Amino acid sequence: MSTRKMFIAGMMLVSASALAQMKYPQTKKIDHVDYYHGTQVADPYRWLEDDNSEETKAWVKAQNEVSFGYLNQIPLREEFKKRIEALSNYEKISAPSRKGEWYYFYKNSGLQNQSVLYRQKGLNGKPELVIDPNTLSKEGTTRLTVFSLDKKGKYACVGLSLSGSDWQTYYVRDMETGNNLADELSWVKVSGVAWKGNGFFYSRYPEPGKGKELSTKNENHQVWFHTVGTPQSKDKLIYEDPKNPQRFHTVSTSDDERFAFLTISDRGKGLDGNALWIMDAAKKETKFKPVVAEPGKYDFSMVDNDGDILILETNEGAPNKKIVRVDPAHPEKVNWKTIVAEKPEPLQGVNTVGKHLFLNYSKDVTSRVISYDYNGKELGSVRLPGLGNAGGFGGEKEDKFTFYTYSSFNFPPTIYRYDLATNTSTVFQKPTLAFDPTDYTVVQKFYPSKDGTQVPMFIVSKKGIEMNGKNPTILYGYGGFNISSTPAFSASLIPWLEKGGIYVVANLRGGSEYGEKWHEAGMKLKKQNVFDDFIAGAEYLIREKYTSPTYLAASGRSNGGLLVGAAINQRPDLFAAALPGVGVMDMLRFQKFTIGWNWVADYGSSDNAEEFKALYAYSPLHNIKAMNYPATMVFTSDHDDRVVPAHSFKYAATLQEKNTAAKPMIIRIDTNSGHGSSNTAKLIELTADSYAFVLFNMGK
């Protein structure tokens, strides 16, 4: 027997042994039934929703003992971790942003748990430390979520989050002394920082009940104004709407601080758009007045003001979005002037610098950037290095140049300096890597979904790999919330590719890849299209001999975790392994926790009879059957207060109960972490465990 065959046989023996010894913790069932529009739905694991109960904590501990006991037996686990660490250990620097004579930027020396904020005088000055979040907690799980300077750069609002929670605490730092003032603002969530004079607007919720901080439904979002140097108790309540408790209220201000913009959304009622109100300091206004009075179907976003005139981005009458000029003295829509009309490609973002508008369009999921003046005259297209993803192009009105970052799957994030007058780019900063990205190839393919819709996917692999149906392949998808899955570089992907693996990103309906029509085609009653797109992608990869069901894994996080759960319920035969992460698994109760009601605009709600029928038909939790499932590693975190871990708890317990295959159904529950990994070390560990679990269960 060859050495390789002996190695594979040895791993299979370990796998069989591990399975023979694996005993899942006994999960008690209770007699709980809900009634939805005349339909009786059992919920035997409802008790797992109480994440603070001693019983749930004991269950979590017992599940982790089984899961990590299983993972510890996989020979490749430690190898993957060390290789990911080695390849990720390179200096990462963000594009700089200017405030006065200072340039601010983030840097990670390689494997730091959190990136560190620095500043320097001029582009050639000596960097000085501003904030190092790694020093703020023992495990490095305190994140710097906000750093917002006032107009003069004298003060900064600093936002911190603990252990991956979405809750933030805001502080005020004196940038001359480098010390924090006594200001401390609690229970901040879904908030910006909008400076105006000697203070700023921010958004928060009332303090939740003790012990319920990570699960209580968040309602009555309020806008407050904080004056620098005063306690939070002295803050002024600017806006609230207790009659509509599930609305979001956020404020931004124009660069000259003349206008304050209040954005109001009501996604809990299924409305995907927003209202827009303004306050004009030049007119000494103290209350907001409407430009768009009520949230509805369409989006309205402030871009900038040109003196008295507002420049807005909207998708009303333009699913791919357009740019308009609005006179707030005559805000009726009949008076709006379109300055950049809708294009065939969706507009993904707008930024401003040097009184230029930079519009970032998506052409088959890759960036196209065009600049305009404030009257809509085209000034030129930015020549990008290739077919990838570009972001940046921000700055002050007096700036003559700006920065942007460009990357792709095999092109590491590289910072370019862009000169506005000459429309030219030069490399400003590029990373030094321990591998050659050109050893890997990226191709884009289009495949037909169930209804004939052409869906794009990116396929990443090592050059020269043989398409023989035996390549271990991870198919990743998201497909929701108008979010586009764009090409993105990750050094942690390389160890998978080095093992002969293929990585695929499918650009499913529900995202923003082709504008609002693409988004709407994967929403609410049409959500099944997303699963059909993913399943068709798996079938395409098998048909074209990239892989086969023995070597194909499904992967997704959050809304993508929902996707994986639905896909393996509907087509378990297509996959050898599944990685549903922090997923929305209980489609009948998601709106009951934290800000879950915010997702009603995309999913619909079980409170609606027609939408309940659609949700119940695909809900991952409610469609688990007694059948053979792929090897599945569910993963979640104890501090996930966006998609509460109860989703994954109930889902994993049901999988363990009903799966009939001799394959593992484990749940990996991270601690002191949230909806995303709370530090670099935890992310590396999760990635290594995912690769090892998948290859192990493919017999590789």
UniProtKB/TrEMBL annotation:
Keyword terms of this UniProt record: Hydrolase, Protease, Serine protease, Signal
Domain spans labelled Peptidase S9A N-terminal: 25-430
SUPFAM superfamilies linked: alpha/beta-Hydrolases (SSF53474), Peptidase/esterase 'gauge' domain (SSF50993)
Catalytic activity: Hydrolysis of Pro-|-Xaa >> Ala-|-Xaa in oligopeptides
Domain Peptidase S9 prolyl oligopeptidase catalytic: start-end pairs: 488-698
Keyword Plastid part of the UniProt annotation: no
Pfam families: Peptidase_S9 (PF00326), Peptidase_S9_N (PF02897)
InterPro entries: AB_hydrolase_fold, Pept_S9A_N, Peptidase_S9_cat, Peptidase_S9A, Prolyl_oligopep/macrocyclase
Stretch forming the signal peptide: 1-20
Top-level taxon of the source organism: Bacteria
EC number annotated for this UniProt entry: 3.4.21.26
Protein name: prolyl oligopeptidase
Organism of derivation: Aquirufa esocilacus
